[in-house]
Write the structure tokens for this entry.
Amino acid sequence: MELVLSLGIGVFVGSGIWLVLRPRTFQVIVGLCLLAYGINLFIFSMGRLRTGAAPIMPKGGFVNPDVYADPLSQALVLTAIVISFATTALFLVVMIASRGLTGTDHVDGKEREDP
Amino acid sequence: MMDALSPEHLIIAPILIPMVAGALMLLYDDRQRTAKLVISLLSAVALLIVAAELVARSKGSPLTGGNAIGIYLLGDWPTPMSIVLVLDRLSAMMVALVAMLAIPALIYSAAGWQRQGQHFHSLFQFLLMGLNGAFLTGDLFNLFVFFEVMLAASYGLLLHGSGGLRVRAGLHYIAINLMAAVLFLIGIAIVYGVTGTLNMADLATQIATLSPEDRPLIHLAAVVLGLAFLIKAGIWPLSFWLPTTYMAAAAPVAAMFAINTKLGIYVILRLSMLTFGATAGVSQGFGADVLIFAGMATIIFGMLGVLASQGLSRITAHLVLVSSGTVLAVTGFALAGGGTAMLSGALFYLISSTIATSALFLLAEPISREEGGIASLLALTADAYGTGVIEDGEIETGAGLIIPGTFTILAFSFIACVLLLAGLPPLSGFIGKFAMLSGGLNPAGLGRGEIGWPVWVFFGLILLSGFATLVALVRLGVQTFWAAGGTPPRMLAIEIAPVIALLGLTVWLTVQAHDVMRYTQATARALSIPSIYIEGVLAAPRVADQPEAIE
């Protein structure tokens, strides 16, 4: 499981970085989304991997924390998802405005002169 | 306990006041600008009052050694577990600086900028909320959340007024900051994975006792986090987005953005002094060299930019970089064990230069109103919204008083800004630079200690950057005030009043330099002794554990 997860994070982040460095706004935004997915998985894995363990403990009495998954990293992921979702939506609006004002989807607002 | 209004709650007020004000204004129609302006100003004035009280409180009493760490436990959970707000001298100072910049920027916006787009005042309040929250939080993840609140509001404000240049600058600004947020999250995740805590004070206690396998990981986390903050602080080579962004922003927005870079610097200062300061064991001074040399490179880059730029707002944006670089380099020196005298001078310089750049951003727009750059930008704005800014300013509000002797007042304000930023006497810019130089020359009192060559290079750069600023601004002043023919620009009283208020503030800084310097000295001392902060946070008592006698 560790191998699959780390490979997954690596593929997400690698393709995200490649796309962010591309000159088209659409590629940049897809790249940022992929990066966000990779990072979310990474935060999740930092709470240590565990299969079949619930993150929420029952109330009262003695609770053995060893049989439960770390709830904090899951809460962090949730917050990070919400924030990255909102900023991506905002970026999309700016992207469309830029496309409308400049007539091109190049990140600099103009095509390069010499291809 | 009926202590809903007890004084401890004041610490959360700088976050709640703008949040409530901003949310309240969303309920009003966008045409009710006077109402919004009044709410906005009331909130900013309330912030200033709260900040003044917080500054007074952070000084503590002689009993507490002149450093009172104020703690606000959200939800009243015990400290390493809970989310905390922490008030110390540094954060109180920064919160006060936010409020001092907000009021003039808001007054200025009343002259016309507030009607160039929607929800200006709400976004402005959310920006203040994000800034204050980031300055007050004692927890890494909340720092991230407040950073994002601040950034989300700043995206909206940057695009305020629309137009091609702003949208293009906004696209770059947002992309860069989303990348910074990604780095920020990676850093937070590693810190959590290694130490199991996100509380800054708790983290600082664990640094010294980390196992040798974990230490490289925490250094890696520090590097990744540092990158995220240094992008915000505009350090070279991560600063290429900054000049265009600040130039494109509307004048009152740029005036407020002058403190955004200082947020990055604040976090670097806070976290590096706390985690890699005196108590860090093997890791002590980690990253100091990078800060010193990258800070100096930033000064050089900003200086060349100042000399090469034509428009005033572009020059000012590069001056922001010079100011960032100076404070970052001094942070590096302090981290490397350079003593507190230089750091206290740098804190004074930070206050003074932030106010001065903010005033210069407000001046830039009226001065170049008759010229090509900004005028065409305004024309674009006018196209997009079907209104002209200049015609727009005079009517309705009743504040359309056009001041006489425009050139005289503009020229005198301009000269004051030049003196401040070039670091010439008699204004506070000189005092800040002088304090840095004297602190660097006498790290341990007169005639003791050896001064390394990086310090000499840094001194050369400080003086040289002051000279470059002088040359560039004087050249621009000659062009604008002496060589320009024709009619002077029309200027409203509410456009020049904020500039004069900001400059008055620097005069006050100059007159009160003794008290302010004492404050920054104590701040620098407290920063160099991390245990003050750590013990202040970790020993915080819960409200539920305290005796009921307080009632």
Summary: The longest helix of chain A spans residues 71-102. Residues 2-50+69-102 of chain A form a domain with the Helix Hairpins fold (CATH 1.10.287). The CA atoms of residues 58 and 89 of chain A lie 37 Å apart. Chain A has a mean pLDDT of 86.
